[in-house]
Amino acid sequence: MIDLGLSKMALIGAVALIVIGPEKLPRVARTVGTLLGKAQRYVNEVKAEVNRSMELDELRKMKETVESAARDVESSVQTAATDFEKQWQDATSTASSSLSDTPAYPEYKHPKKKWRLKQGAVPNWYKARNGVRTRALSGSARVAKYRPHKFN
Question: Where are the domains of the chain?
């Protein structure tokens, strides 16, 4: 780039003042300023267009890679599904032929203490909204909670 210091700018201004004259110098300076501004805007627009085209190319490449990955996943899921269906048919056909006198569903077992797991799986906000007790109250706490208040 051009290295313009204060001394060089003063020299250019003095030469312009002598050559152009003091009457026309402000108008010429405005014209030069507007032309430089237009040139800078044009250069910025070209830079922005180049950046947009580069980003568009990158997005196209990314889209192609994502689409190829999606196709790979889809094909692997389809092969896994067909394999599973095949194995399921084999298992059900052998199970139904060998165990024709026993039921196909498991025998019922009482869950015993598993209800705590089910209770813990319900979110607290749902319990609070539906009035489910989450803590046990002692007798005195229950009396204090439901005792009518006296206003003095």
Answer: 8-96+112-146
